[in-house]
Amino acid sequence: MHMHQHPAAPQAAATAARPARGVLATTCGRSDLELQVLQSAAGFYIGTFCREDGPFTRESVEYFPTRLSADAALSSGLWTQRAHL
Q1: What does pTM read for this prediction?
Q2: Which of 8, 57, 60 is nearest to 31 (CA)?
C-alpha cells in the first residue's frame, strides 16, 4: 500500500472549516463523528470516538509511536485511510 494525502484545513480557517469526518464511521451510519487521535494498546491512531460507546472506528492503517506524530499525520493529511472495518 502507498500513502496518499488527505486535504488538511488551512490553519487560519480552522475554526470556520468543517472538521474531517471518518469514512468508515460514515459507512456505519455515523457521519457526525470527527477524525481525532486515539490510543490503544498498539499505539496512537486516527479514528472516531462516540461519546455513548467509546472508540468507534480506526480510520488509519498506521499506528503511530507518539500522540505528537499522530497529530502531525492528521493535520498534514499524511496517513493512509483503511478500506474496511
Answers
A1: 0.77
A2: 57
Structure confidence by residue, pLDDT tens digits, 2-47:
555 555 444 443 444 556 999 999 999 999 999 999 999 999 999 9
CB half-sphere exposure, 35, CA atoms < 13 A:
25
What ranges make up the beta strands (E) of the chain?
A: 36-40, 43-50, 54-58
In sequence order, the 6+-apart residues with CB closer than 8 A to the CB of 82 are: 24, 58, 59, 60, 61
Q: What is the CA radius of gyration of the chain?
A: 12
What is the pLDDT confidence band of residue 85, given thresholds at 50, 70 and 90? Answer: confident
